[in-house]
Predict the structure.
Amino acid sequence: MAESHPDAGAICWIDLTVDDAENVRDFYARVAGWRSEPVEMGGYRDFNMIAPHGSDPVAGICHARGSNTGLPAQWLIYITVDDLDRAVAEVEALGGIVLRPAGEPGEMGRFCVIRDPAGAVAALYDPAG
């Protein structure tokens, strides 16, 4: 059996992918008081959002470009898993659909986007890749 990550099963991130990230960033800055921190994406910037009295990002707001092309405009949770390939096999065996396959392992691990049998969308994330 694979060794378990300490945060396996936890929601480790949440982000929103939209056509106009600047406008939505400004919306949440006014509504929730979030501050933004730009994240360079190679020709454009997405945004980490920081709570009014915090210093660490609490969410991301991303442009629907690059690796985010085609993602639904909804808050997307990232759930940590111990073994992404095994989790994807379970998704498919249990009637879910992989909307965005996992890419190659990178510095930050690997993730994929799934739709569960009820139609809800989430990302699965394996920090070990």
